[in-house]
Design goal:
Length: 196
């Protein structure tokens, strides 16, 4: 769904009007995919995230996404819900960290989530993140040039931060960047996509 331009009445004395960009919640479909070129301290990589289906994860409507060897589950609000490997849940977010739609520059929200990692030893930690829609920018990527909402996510306890550039034209992220995240530092940019 393309960003909607809404004309707001400006100051009557100057006759100026302001345009506000808004992004409504997208709907994903089986077969939608986004391919990214990324960098981590360990080196470059390429990853494709593909929507396999819309279904239920622990009784919650969600999208199942294939990304390399792992499958991820996202809510309809594109909130991170879980990661699974071989049918086994390896990371779970309770409640899921939902995006708050519609997006509009200046909007912010917070979320407190219990993260559970199921590895050799189960670990559980509670983190509060603050989200802010910082801007509406033109972003150049190998897949093309897009108008995108820059959304930042900062964890209060850990100091980790992530930045997402969400483009309504591709119903997803055209650029991502993370610092001090649980999975390390990274940067990704879109190289190809197909959405319905």
């Amino acid at each position: 769904m393309l960003a909607l331009a809404i004309l707001l009445p400006g100051c009557e004395s100057s006759g100026v009007s302001h345009t506000v960009q808004i992004a409504e919640r997208p709907t994903w479909a089986a077969g939608d995919f986004w391919t990214y070129r990324g960098r981590r301290p360990t080196g470059p990589y390429t990853i494709t995230r593909k929507v396999l289906r819309e279904g239920l994860f622990e009784k919650r409507p969600a999208y199942e996404i294939e990304a390399g060897d792992a499958h991820y589950w996202y809510t309809r609000q594109l909130g991170y819900l879980a990661r699974t490997n071989g049918g086994r849940t390896t990371r779970l977010a309770t409640p899921p960290e939902d995006w708050q739609w519609p997006l509009q520059v200046g909007k912010s929200w917070s979320a407190t989530v219990t993260w559970t990692d199921h590895g050799e030893k189960e670990r559980e930690f509670v983190l509060t993140s603050v989200w802010t829609v910082e801007g509406y920018e033109t972003v150049k990527t190998p897949a093309g040039t897009f108008k995108a909402f820059k959304v930042s996510r900062r964890e209060i306890e850990s100091g980790a931060s992530e930045e997402f550039w969400y483009s309504p034209a591709v119903k997803g992220w055209v650029k991502l960047r993370g610092t001090h995240t649980a999975d390390g530092d990274y940067e990704e940019e879109l190289t190809a996509s197909s959405v319905r």
